TrEMBL record:
This is Phosphate ABC transporter substrate-binding protein. It holds the Pfam family PBP_like_2. Residues 33-269 form the PBP domain. It comes from Methanococcoides seepicolus. InterPro entries: PBP_domain, Phos-bd, Phosphate_ABC_transporter. Keywords: Signal, Transport. GO terms for molecular function: phosphate ion binding.
Length: 284
């Protein structure tokens, strides 16, 4: 359905080395005297930012972009503390976060860099192919605990969720759970990759992930928000038919300049937009 771009070994080494020398510093120069910036935050945005950084660095020798995940909340906190040049998020900053940033002399400015679809995923051997919002909510708040209650096999459901620092967690809670709390026995995962891995290995599991993480090892369900079930295809997301779609953001401290501005503008360029599509997201 979607193809995720993978970093080359060279780029991974560059990203890892930059993370080591750049932690806690903003606007660094690299060891070879080139310009360097650090980008941190959302695991949903992570594969996109990594792919964009790889292409950008190939096009701009001597300029380096370090990419680190950890969750939207982690990236926002790092921006507020002045530890990174760009925070990448899958949700808008909260009023309290903006207030904390202002109190710390940081003026967050939002940049929409792409659009994403959130997929509800199960193991490929699960016979379920679609669920309504009501059924998904019932599973995640604890009202439904066996797959046979939603038309599946007699098997206890293993419910997977991201942690509360994740923007995807907050989006899913607001849009699907309508603000209700996740069930107490939901298995909390520190990354989208760990959700994918568990769903691959467990026939009873259900999780949620950005479409860029989808592959043949998991099955994305069609979801019905009340107007018929829709699959998370590119066509449905771009047309607005798929109900779980959202913007992805970069945040900078004020108007970006220098390498920050170059990298943000590159993502919206023709080459950057091609990369957005290759990763499995959609140009802003």
């Amino acid at each position: 359905m979607f193809k995720r771009s993978m970093l080359s070994v060279t780029t991974l080494l560059v990203v890892m080395s930059l993370a080591l020398f750049g932690a806690g510093c903003v606007g660094n120069n690299s060891d070879d005297g080139g310009e360097a910036i650090m980008v941190k935050g959302s695991d949903t945005v992570l594969p996109l930012a990594q792919a964009e950084a790889e292409v950008f660095m190939n096009e701009n020798p001597g300029k380096y972009v370090s990419i680190i995940g950890g969750g939207s909340g982690v990236g926002i906190a790092a921006l507020i503390d002045g530890e990174v040049d760009i925070a990448m998020t899958s949700r808008a900053m909260k009023d309290v976060e903006i207030e904390n940033a202002h109190n710390n002399g940081i003026n967050p400015l939002q940049h929409t860099i792409a659009w994403d679809g959130i997929s509800v995923i199960v193991n490929p051997e699960n016979p379920i192919s679609e669920l309504t919002f009501e059924q998904i909510k019932a599973i995640y708040v604890g009202d439904v605990s066996n797959w046979n209650e939603v038309g599946g096999e007699d098997r206890e459901i293993v419910v997977l969720s991201r942690d509360s620092s994740s923007g995807t967690y907050e989006y899913f809670k607001d849009e699907v759970l309508e603000g209700n709390e996740f069930r107490a026995d939901a298995l909390i995962n520190p990354s989208t990759g760990s959700i994918i891995q568990t769903v691959m290995q467990n026939k009873a599991a259900i999780g949620y992930a950005g479409v860029a993480y989808l592959g043949n090892d998991v099955k994305a369900l069609a979801v019905d928000a009340g107007e018929g079930a829709e699959e998370p295809t590119a066509e449905n997301i771009l047309s607005g038919a798929y109900p779980l779609a959202r913007p992805l953001y970069f945040y900078t401290d004020g108007e970006p300049a220098g390498l920050n501005l170059e990298f943000i503008e590159f993502i919206s360029s023709e080459l950057g937009s091609e990369t957005v599509l290759e990763v499995g997201y959609f140009p802003a």
